[in-house]
Design a protein that fits this description.
Elements lengths: L3 E3 L4 H6 L1 E5 H10 L12 E6 L2 E12 L2 E10 L1 H7 L16 H19 L20
Length: 139
């Protein structure tokens, strides 16, 4: 099961799309959920939760015995964050349609591609923001 990790993001971390996570913070969250403590592995996919927003994440490195560097990917709706993590979607977050397993996989692949494009500089941050203003056509 993929982890959904609560993090506090500074403006610098949001701009740089990277966050440091202490093992103690992860341990505390897992203990609250009644789950076994564990370490994260480089390359492992996670979901980051910060200030009501959810982001795809990838563990880049364990920079010390108690600290991880995690790259932030694309922001996603709460429903898809839970689906990505393989967890039941809490009541009230579900969309009106029931997503099939195939739809879920395709959507997750699309979210990953958007994150990769953003890192490569191909997608401006505003294009993946849920608050982005609609683009106007030139006349």
């Amino acid at each position: 099961m993929m982890e959904i990790i609560d993090v506090a993001l500074t403006p610098l971390q949001r701009r740089n799309r990277a966050v440091f996570l202490d093992q103690g913070d992860l341990d505390a969250q897992l203990a609250l959920e009644g789950r076994d403590l564990r370490v994260l592995e480089p390359g492992e996919k996670v979901v980051l939760h910060a200030d009501g927003d959810y982001f795809a994440g990838t563990v880049i490195d364990q920079v010390s015995t108690d600290k991880y560097l995690i790259s932030m990917g694309v922001r996603m709706p709460a429903e898809w964050a839970y689906r990505r993590a393989g967890r039941p979607v809490p009541a009230g977050l579900e969309a009106s349609e029931t997503a099939t397993a195939e739809t879920n996989v395709r959507t997750q692949e699309l979210l990953d591609l958007l994150g990769e494009l953003r890192k490569a500089g191909g997608v401006p941050a505003s294009a993946t923001s849920s608050t982005a203003a609609p683009r106007r056509r030139a006349r």
